[in-house]
Amino acid sequence: MPVAIITGASKGLGRALAEALAERGWDLVLDARTARPLQGTAVAVLGKYRTQVRALPGDVTDGAHRSRLVAAARELGGVDLLVNNASALGAEPLVRLESLALDGLRRALEVNVVAALGLVQEALPLLRESPAGAVIDVSSDAAAEAYETWGGYGASKAALDQLSAVLGEEEPGLRVWAVDPGDMGTDLYAAAVPDDDDPRPDPASVVPAFLRLLDGRPASGRYGAPALLEQR
C-alpha cells in the first residue's frame, strides 16, 4: 500500500485528508502536537478502513520527532506522499504588523517553513524511491494577497511557496505542489479571527481537489483548491 505522512492531522484539513486517503487504501503516519485528538483521528480511521496507522504526537520543529515520523513510514514501506499541513499563525488572534511579536513571527516561520523543509529533507531518500513520490505543502491565499493582520502568517506561507517551487525544480522525479485550500472553517481560522462568525466550508469539501492532484499528477507548481474543484 502507498504510505503518506500528514502533519497537523488531528483535526481540520489534516484529518479530512487522512480519512480520504485511508478510504483509498493508504497507510498513514499522522502527526499533531496534542496526543488525545490525534489518537481520536487514528481511532476513527482504523474503525472505518482496513489500513495501518501510526499516530505520533510531537512538535514538527523538533528534529528528533521528524526523524521518528519518517522512521515510522519506513517501517510501513516507505514514503509516497508527504503533506506539510501543520501551521502556526504567529499571533492568536492575528494583529497588525506594528504589534506582531517577533517571537511569534519566528514561531510561524519555524513551523510553516523551517520544519516543513526539515521534514522534506528527512523524507527525500524514501520519496525518491517511490514510483510516484509527491510533496504537498499546504499554503494560503494570504501568501499571495495582502490582508490586514495576516502579514506574518502570509509571509511564512509565501516562503513555503518559494521552497516548494525550488524543490520542484531540484527534484524533477517528484511532484511538489503548493496548494491553497481556500476558505475553510477550521480551528486555525477561528483562532486567527475569533470575532468572525460567518459560516465557512467544511475542510472535507476541499479534499477532492487534493485527490485530483494525486490522480492526475500535474506538473509541480502552485494550485488553488477552488480552481481544481471547478475542473471537469
Count of runs of 4 or more consecutive helical residues: 8
Which regions have little confidence, pLDDT < 50, spanning 5+ residues? none
Tell me the total number of β-strands: 7
Helicity range: 40-55%
**Given the helix and strand composition, which structural class is it?**
alpha/beta
Mean model confidence by pLDDT: 97
Separation, N- and C-terminal Cα atoms? 28 Å
Rg for CA atoms: 17 Å
What does this structure look like?
By secondary structure, the chain is α/β, with parallel strands linked by helices. It is built from eight helices and seven strands, in the order E-H-E-H-E-H-E-H-E-H-E-H-H-E-H. The protein has a seven-stranded parallel sheet with strand order 3-2-1-4-5-6-7, sandwiched between helices. The protein is globular, with a radius of gyration of 17 Å. The protein starts with a strand and ends with a helix.
Give a brief rundown of this model.
With 232 residues, the chain is an alpha/beta fold. It has helices spanning 12-23, 35-48, 63-76, 102-129, 151-170, 187-192, 207-216, 225-230; strands at 3-6, 27-32, 53-57, 81-84, 134-138, 175-180, 221-224.
How would the blueprint of this fold be written?
Layout: E1 3-6, H1 12-23, E2 27-32, H2 35-48, E3 53-57, H3 63-76, E4 81-84, H4 102-129, E5 134-138, H5 151-170, E6 175-180, H6 187-192, H7 207-216, E7 221-224, H8 225-230
Parallel strand pairs: 1-2, 1-4, 2-3, 4-5, 5-6, 6-7
Helix pairs in contact: 1-2, 3-4, 4-5
